[in-house]
Each structure stands twice: as structure tokens, then as C-alpha cells.
Specification:
2 copies of one chain form a homodimer.
Chain A lengths: L4 H18 L3 H6 L1 E10 L6 E5 L1 H15 L2 E5 L4 E3 L2 E9 L3 E10 L2 E12 L25 H11 L8 E4 L3 H12 L4 E4 L7 H4 L11 H4 L16 H14 L4 E2 L2 E9 L4 E8 L2 E5 L3 E4 L21 E4 L13 E5 L3 H12 L3 E6 L4 E4 H7 L6 H5 L4 H9 L6 H15 L1 H9 L12 H8 L4 E4 L2 H6 L4 E4 L3 E5 L2 E4 L4 E3 L2 E4 L7 H7 L2 H7 L32 E3 L4 H19 L15
Parallel strand pairs in A: 1-7, 8-9, 8-14, 9-10, 14-25, 15-24, 16-17, 16-24, 17-20, 18-19
Antiparallel strand pairs in A: 1-2, 3-5, 4-5, 5-6, 6-7, 11-12, 12-13, 21-22, 22-23
Helix pairs in contact in A: 5-19, 17-18
Chain lengths: 595, 595
């Protein structure tokens, strides 16, 4: 074979690694790593979403997990590449329970980062392509149940005559993506959606909302958007796609169904989930419960002293759907991150007089700039050279969170130079800009705090032009009957106030539905423990609680933007399927927030 | 370049052909063809679906069409292949109006068959991939109309404040595929569906119906079925897919809307189409009218003397949806083609006592056999080697109908041997089998008469076992109060009769909605003019009236099975788009049935 030298290097390393693991020589295995090394594993070794950092951590994990993982069959799946002395190669392997794929990055012949991810469970592979179901037995059958009769039987019976193995609370993109993965793995599941129709989580948003992420980043699993789909999807079009998806993927999707209560019986290993549906309470008894209520938990309101005296309307951004009743009115928007900007534009388009109250600096990036520089692997050009959405997802997942800031800082240094004129004009308008405490920009903010950034799709120009006014770096002292009093003594007249003040952590939803005790045991979701304001340590390595076992048995969190919902839905579903089939799933690593 | 000798041969031929056309040397061009040659053109040269047969025909067409087509840019699009002395190569080219693709097959250096097909109209290319719409202008805009507001505006206004360019009568797979193509080409169109929901054309079929064609053959344009879709799609699942497709493809799809009348004003060049919708009559004024009411026209009933005396129920197969009321009853099924078999099985599964009355022999092929031998280019294996559905479609279209029987005869000689035991048992049960008048089997029957065949998905076994009785080669003399009297004097007791006696030609729908005169001017649809019973000459070369200009200006027919609906929808849409844009479309060749 016509191998390049990078491939030879990668093959040699992989061969040595395979041999060390086969002979259970943990020392030899860890010797193959640099001192400053990382191994990110999705389920294959750890049955967790876990990043081991440093050789000692890798050593400990192998000692604990090697016997049960029993990895074999390591082989490169293509040519390696080499850039700036870093050799990168993709490979496949097997474990006792399944098959996996991964990526190795070497420097000077030793491993800098290793990425391993479970792809399938042996014996429980998804049926697609050559193994797709036939659909019918070509045989006359007096006992035939047609597809529609089977579907109706399943829909009528599930939750009534037989219980689902898993219940997913939340029927937005997260619940839908997970529902689809569970369906394809044959896990009986019900997705609970409080709204009347699948897709309403998008339809109910404010009028002008369009996705800020480009289409190649947003595909759902199994059925990608067609080639003529717009780059940026309008909210209602997204709603329609989700609605048809839930239907043609044959999800057991309960609309107008709200979970009111859930409790876990640790002896029975069963959840009791109360659902308010069509005027009555239905009780479901799944073995697993997934919270997929959105990247964010319940709305967060800030204290507004004197709110009782305020004569106008006060609403949270989650309640804001239509700006038309604010035409000609003065509206104060508290908050200058994504929601604050979007709501301000929508209000301005409705003819309101808008003032944005900015309490802390925001990282702003122009949409075109982000698309070109940050989303390159999710693009038409990338697809043309063979980087499918699936490959791009794996590429992203193969980079440990600890190493992200370095690359992001370079990116944002570049962005700041490139759009310097834009940033100067924005700052001149009184807007407080930053690029994160350590200058690592928007994506790190998203993972660390989920807040404090805006992908500019039009608001910044209005701010620059003074069409949207900004009061920056002020604190609100109290509300007056007709407006807002700031701590510097100045006042702002306001007929209405929209609080774009964010959301609580998703675990507060657990507090509402399960109990405070369980919510506290599980702890907050998201964040990396980077130490920046809003993301206190200790360092987590991966987002808290997301897509992996939590401190509460059989309680899971799924969610994130469309890309994260798509990618990690696979791993949540595999973990649940493995448990359903009795596959041993020894979890390595303590759950998030463990005391 | 590392070309094989077949490629060299093909390139040499193509170069000579290009030169002859460029220099308008029609003689030199036709000299490049064998005496027994064929050129099948979809729009590019003829603005028609037309097969020229023999050098004289090709000569005449070039004389007429070369000046307006002005073809250039001929180049091979891959390596040529060679099998049994036949060199095959694919190529692309341009015309004055558009871009095209095609296939050449050479024997001894001269052309046996040439296939050319228009792919795009210059300046009116579909917007997809790198040219997909952005979806939003990243700019605050007080005059913004959101996507959903634009859609609603279009839906409310089309047919009311502004007229569609095209109306499609029929919202099944044909109307839907065509609607999607027209949408992607920017042709304002309304699809009229008489049923309450998109997909009802499938849902309303009898309970046990499953598609007889495998999934790779059935994809709709733009959004293929996902990889886990079953090989054979149950009717209700197909209905759901069509329903979501019409929605996410943003078709202007009017449900519960029946066309009652249509007339053409040749001066205004406008149709007046009356539509009964939601209790009122709406008048549409499109420039083009497409009949997509199904591969078949109105139901065909056979005369049944004494029907008034018959005490039981008589229904046509199109009215048959549920067999359960016939449980325990004696039912006579008249007809032994697809419907006759399917209805018989459904009745048997419902517990009826079924006798199939077979008036003429049927071509039966086992589903597995057909899948393996006849559908090979539409399969997982084909896809794996790069034969996408699109490529398979082009491959099929590149074979002139005149040459199909030869290959089909070989195929059916093989099938008869392979399943000899099966056919013997079927014949022993009294079933009358044939393989077509010239032994060319099922597919030729489909194109020639649309009848007389059955893809066995279970009925034959019941016939063999005597579970479904067969009376073969008999004629019905009359009905009696309790059954059927045959011309040989025998009687059959029957509580009900289902006439699976086929359908009239689609042009009878034109007679119902437009006028007898126009229907007669246009003439029947389908059939090849092969001269076999049911398909009288003269030889047509391509199916009558389908997908091309008819004898009635601005009246079109679209339809066929899912594969034909998918493939030819593109060419119908291109013809309509070209007319909308004022592109010259000089049609070469008389319309079908021209006097």
C-alpha cells in the first residue's frame, strides 16, 4: 500500500497501543502518551462522557476499565494527515460490548490527544441500509396486523397496557432527536411535549426569529435537510420540519402533555411519572427518565425593587412573542446577550422606542464572519471535500474542552482584526464589548456560561446608528411608576420592560418536578468549571451532567443546540439501550457535582 | 490521463459528432450512426419526449432542430465501459437554452443508441447546495415579512389576488412530485387534491396494501426516504410521507378540492378551471393545466347482464377498502391482474370465501425474484457501487422502448426457468399463466396495456393451496339473483362481486372535465403501439401523451408509478418553466394520436 509517512507513524503507534492493551500492560500504554495528554472517551471504555487528562488519569482509567472493555481490532480507517508536526488519524476498534471509532493525534511519536467513541452495540445494531426492515412478509396472513394497526396499537397501549422503558420530558429538538435514536435502537419511549404540536417550541418564539446557526450545523439525525433548504431556517419552517420528523420517524410523541411530578423508587428501579394530558393525569412507569426541556431551565428573573409600583408591563424574554402591541411605546430591554439583541430588533421593527440595558460586556460576532471562519467544517465546501456533518461532529468531539481555548483565542484574535472597524463603531455607540475573560470568544462563553454573547444578525447596526439606544455598565436601583431608576441617579422612561435575563440551570426543572433534594444531589447542568465568572470550578473536563450518568440513578439530561442535540442523542440512546439489554455498563468516573 | 480504449473510442465518436453538429453537417452526423439506431431525446433537441428511430428520422430532426438547439460543449463525464462489444459512455453538453446530459452506446465505432436529456435551463437553475437560499437578510427591517407571513400571503393570495401559472389536477405522488419540481423552479402552481389530506390516495386503499416496488425505486425527488425505511412501504406510511413532503416542500396544496370543469381560451392562452372547495366554487386561471389523476383514468366496469337482479353487492376495486364485512361470505372477484390478486388476498384474510374469475392469462412474477433480477440497479448493492437512484433513472431512460423487449425476453426466459416449479404448481391449480404475447413479461405489459400482470406478494400461494379458487378461461353470461352464470352453463354462488376490471385511459378524465371533443383530440394515454392486444398501433416510440406536449395546447399529463412520477416530473416542470420564461420551445414531432 502506498502509505505516507504520517500513516506509517500513526499505524506504528496504534499497533503499539493495541499490543499494550491486549497484554494489559497499562504502563506501556500510558508510555505512549505525552506528559500533557488527553483521552476523551464517549462510552467505549468508561460508559461515560469523560475526558482523562494526563497520564496518571489515563493509567487509573485503564486499570479500572480495561478488563471489562476488552478492546481489540484496532485499525486505521484512512490515511493519516500531518500538519505543524501533529499527526492525525482516524481508526476503528471493538470492545466486548460494541464497536467504536476514534481519532489519535501524535506529536513526536507520542499521543497528544486520543478520542474514542462507541458506535454500535454488538447484536443491537440499528437496522438501516442493507439491514433495513423488509416492511411486509410476502405471505397472506389472516392474523396480519398492518403497519397502521400496529402503530395504533402501540400508541394506544404504550403508557397504558405496557410501559415505556424510557420517558423523555420535552419535545423540542433535543427530545425529538433522542426519541428518534431510541426508536431506531428499539427502545420503547414516550416523548412528552407540553405544547399542542411538535415544533411549537420554535413556533412560539418571537415573530422574526431565524436560526443563527447555518443549515449544515443543524441537521437532525437520519433525515438531513434537503439541498435547497435555506442556510438560516425561519422558526416556523423549523417547527414544520420537527413536526413532520416526529411523525415520519414514528415517535410516540404526546402533545399537550405536561409532566407534573416524577419520583424514583430505587428498589423497584422504576420512575413514577405523572403526566397531565387531555384533562386527566396519566401515570407512566419508565425505568429511565430524561430531562430534555431545553438548553436552559426555568426563566431567570432579576430582582426589580419597586416592580409593584411600575405601571407598565414586565415580561421575561421567554414570554415575548409579538412586539406589535409595543409600537410607539418606550421599551426597556434588560440584557444585552442573544435574547436581548433579538428582542430589541423585534421591538424596533414593531415601531417601539428601544433602550437596551447592558449590565456586563457582550461578545459580539458578525454572522458572516462566524460562518466563514468558525463554521468552515459545516459548509457546502466542506461537504464537497467529503466532510459530512457526521465527520464534522466527530472532529469537533475529538478535541478535549481543555484544549479548545487555545484555538479559540487564535480565532478571535483574527476576528477582532478582521472586523476592527465594526467593533470600533459599536464601542463608540456606548456598547460594552468583550471577548471573554481570557479572550477566547463566543463558543467558550456558550459552553462555560451559556450567556454573554450575540451572533450579529442585524441588531448591532441599529445600535451603531443609535436606533436602539444602549445604557451600559449601569445597575438598576429600582423601578418607578413610569420607568427605571439607575444607581447613578439617572432615569429611563419606560412603558414596558422585557427581562432578557436568561434562564436557570436545567436542574431547577428537576427541583420543580422531582424534588429539591434530588436537584441538589444532581447539581447544575452545563458549564466546564473554567473558573471564569459564572462558571466556577472545579474543572469538569466536559459539560456538567449532560448526556451521561448523573448522581441520580436513571436520571439523564439531554439537550443543547441542534448540533449537540443531534450528536449526543446517539450516546444517550446507546447508554439507555445497553441498560435495557442488560449489557454491563460499568461507569468510570464520578458524576458531576459529586460531593 | 489513464484512459481505457473504450473511453478513447467514445471520445473519438463524441468529438466527431460534436464537430458535425457544429458545422451543421447533418449528413456527417447521421453517418456516425448504425443503420439500426435510436436517439431518445428528453427536451434538449426536440422540446419533446421523443425517440428517433433510424438514420432518416435522426436526419429530419437535426435539419429541423439544430439551428434552435445550437448544441456545444460535448464532453465525457467519466470513463467509458465496454461489454459484449458495446461501448457505453456518459457525457454532458449545452444547448442555447440549457445544459444537458446523456449516454452513447457504440458498436463497431458507430452509434447504436444515443440518449440526450435537458438538465437545467440557463439562468433558471434550481437553487440548491452552494446556491441554496440564505433564508434571511441579516438586517433589521421594519418592512420585514417573515417566512411564515410570506407563506400565508402566498397561500391566501394564490388563486385569489393572483393566478398560478400552472394548475395540477391530482395530489397523489404524481401531482406532488410535479408540484415539488415546479416549486423548485419558481413556477407558481396549485395542486388540487380531492381528498381531505395529502396521502389519502394511499390511505384510502384497501387495508393490507403495501407498495410492491422496493424503496430504492420509490424515492420522491429532493428528499429520499431515510436509510432505515422499510423495503416495502405500507400504504399509510406512504400517506404520511407524502403528507409531510407536501408540507415541508411548501407546495400550494389544496385539499378537499375537486376540479369540476376546465376550458381553454386559445386567444387569451388561459385555462378557466372551476374548483369545488370548502362549499364554494373557486375559479382559477392558469396558463397550463396538468392532469395527474393517476396512472389510470376513471374506473372501468364490464357489462354484467342481470346485475339488477343480483341480490348482493357489486363494487369496483377502486371502491374496495375493507373486507371485514365479507367475512364468512362468498365473494367473486372478477379479474386476475394486480388488483384482482390483492383484493382476493384481502378478502381471504377477512374470512371470505373467494373465487377469482380469470378472463385472460396473467403474467405472475414472485416479488423476491423480481427484486433480485429486475430491480438490481435500484438496490442497496447498486447504491454501494455508486449507482444512485438518479443514475439508475437515467440508465433506464437511456434505453429506447423499441429495444426493451429483447432484454426483457431474456430476463423472463431466465425467470421462467428459475421459478419453474412455482409456475407449474400455479398452472396446476387452474390458473392461466402467460408471459405476454411475445414472452417479454411484466414490464412490457405495464407499458403497453397497464394490465394483465401481478407481482406475487402472497396470493399465488393461496391459489396453489386452493384457498382462493380460480375459474379460468370462462366468460360471464349473466348474473343471477344469487350468483354468476357462465357461458359454459356452470354457476357460481356469490354474495358479493368485486370487479377488478381496470381503469379507462386518463384522457377520459379530460372528457369528464373539459369536453369529449378535447379528449378525442388528445386521444388515449399510455401504451406504446406495439400491436399486442390492448395496445394497437401505430408504433409510438414512447408512451402516448405522457409528460410531453399533447394535441391540446397547454394541456399535459403527468403520472406513473413512483419512479416514473419522480423522473419525468423534472421534464414536465422544465417544459412549463421554459414557457413561463419565454424560452423558445420549438416542439419537434407530432403529438400522440395526431390524425
Amino acid at each position: 500500500m502506498h502509505e505516507n509517512s504520517a500513516t506509517q507513524t500513526a499505524a506504528a503507534w496504534l499497533g503499539a497501543f493495541a499490543k499494550a492493551l491486549e497484554t494489559k500492560d497499562v504502563g506501556a500504554a500510558t508510555d505512549l502518551f505525552l506528559d500533557d495528554c488527553y483521552w476523551r472517551d464517549l462510552l467505549a471504555f468508561t460508559w461515560n462522557i469523560k475526558t482523562l487528562e494526563g497520564r496518571a488519569s489515563i493509567h487509573d482509567m485503564l486499570v479500572a476499565a480495561l478488563d471489562s472493555a476488552r478492546p481489540t481490532g484496532w485499525r486505521l480507517t484512512g490515511e493519516a494527515t500531518s500538519e505543524d508536526g501533529l499527526v492525525e488519524a482516524w481508526f476503528s476498534f471493538e470492545t466486548a460490548a460494541g464497536r467504536g471509532e476514534g481519532c489519535l493525534r501524535l506529536r513526536n511519536g507520542k499521543c497528544r490527544t486520543l478520542f474514542t467513541a462507541l458506535s454500535d452495540l454488538k447484536g443491537f445494531e440499528e437496522k438501516a441500509g442493507t439491514s433495513r426492515p423488509i416492511g411486509v412478509r410476502h405471505k397472506a396472513d389472516r392474523a396480519r396486523r398492518t403497519w397502521s394497526e400496529e402503530r395504533r396499537r402501540e400508541e394506544d397501549g404504550l403508557g397504558r397496557t405496557h410501559q415505556p422503558y424510557c420517558v423523555v420530558i420535552g419535545g423540542g429538538q433535543g427530545g425529538i432527536a433522542l426519541g428518534a435514536r431510541l426508536k431506531q435502537l428499539g427502545v420503547p419511549a414516550i416523548v412528552l411535549e407540553k405544547n399542542a404540536r411538535a415544533g411549537d417550541s420554535w413556533r412560539n418564539r418571537y415573530r422574526s426569529l431565524v436560526l443563527h446557526d447555518p443549515v449544515w450545523y443543524d441537521h437532525l439525525p437520519y433525515i438531513p435537510f434537503p439541498d435547497h433548504w435555506p442556510v438560516f431556517t425561519p422558526k416556523d419552517k423549523m417547527g414544520d420540519w420537527l413536526e413532520m420528523y416526529a411523525r415520519v420517524m414514528e415517535l410516540n410523541y404526546w402533545t399537550s402533555s405536561t409532566c407534573t411530578k416524577a419520583s424514583y423508587d430505587a428498589n423497584e428501579k422504576l420512575w413514577t411519572v405523572e403526566v397531565y394530558r387531555a384533562g386527566e393525569t396519566v401515570v407512566l412507569k419508565p425505568q429511565h427518565l430524561v430531562f430534555a426541556t431545553g438548553a436552559y431551565g426555568p426563566p431567570k428573573m432579576i430582582p426589580l425593587p419597586g416592580a409593584d409600583n411600575f405601571s407598565g408591563e414586565i415580561l421575561h424574554s421567554s414570554q415575548y412573542t409579538d412586539g406589535r402591541r409595543f409600537g410607539g411605546k418606550k421599551v426597556a430591554v434588560i440584557g444585552a446577550a442573544s435574547s436581548g439583541h433579538d428582542v430589541s430588533v423585534d421591538l424596533w421593527e414593531s415601531g417601539a422606542e428601544v433602550t437596551m440595558i447592558q449590565r456586563s460586556p457582550t461578545t459580539v460576532v458578525k454572522s458572516d464572519t462566524l460562518m466563514e471562519l468558525a463554521f468552515e467544517i459545516y459548509s457546502e465546501a466542506a461537504f464537497a471535500r467529503g466532510t459530512t456533518t457526521q465527520k464534522a461532529d466527530m472532529l469537533v468531539a475529538s478535541t478535549p474542552f481543555a484544549l479548545m481555548p487555545e484555538g479559540q483565542k487564535k480565532l478571535y484574535d483574527h476576528i477582532r482584526k478582521r472586523d476592527a472597524a465594526f467593533y470600533e463603531r459599536l464601542a463608540s455607540a456606548g456598547f460594552a464589548l468583550d471577548f471573554g475573560e481570557d479572550e477566547t470568544g463566543l463558543m467558550m462563553k456558550a459552553y462555560r456560561t451559556g450567556s454573554g454573547y450575540y451572533i450579529d444578525v442585524g441588531a448591532s447596526e441599529l445600535i451603531i446608528d443609535g436606533e436602539i439606544k444602549v445604557r451600559s455598565g449601569v445597575s438598576i436601583k429600582s423601578l418607578t411608576p413610569r420607568g427605571i431608576l439607575f444607581d447613578d441617579g439617572s432615569e429611563l422612561a419606560a412603558d414596558a420592560i422585557v427581562c432578557c435575563t436568561g434562564y436557570q440551570s436545567m436542574h431547577e426543572t428537576v427541583a420543580q418536578l422531582v424534588s429539591r433534594a434530588v436537584a441538589d444531589k444532581v447539581g447544575p447542568c452545563w458549564g466546564l468549571g473554567s473558573g471564569v465568572r459564572g462558571d466556577p470550578g472545579p474543572w469538569q473536563g466536559d459539560p456538567r451532567n449532560m448526556w451521561k450518568p448523573t448522581a441520580q440513578e436513571a436520571l439523564w439530561f439531554h439537550g443543547g443546540n441542534l448540533a449537540l442535540s443531534r450528536f449526543y442523542s446517539k450516546y444517550v440512546a446507546l447508554q439507555i439501550k445497553a441498560r435495557m439489554e442488560g449489557t454491563p455498563t460499568p461507569v468510570y468516573g464520578a458524576p458531576s457535582n459529586a460531593v
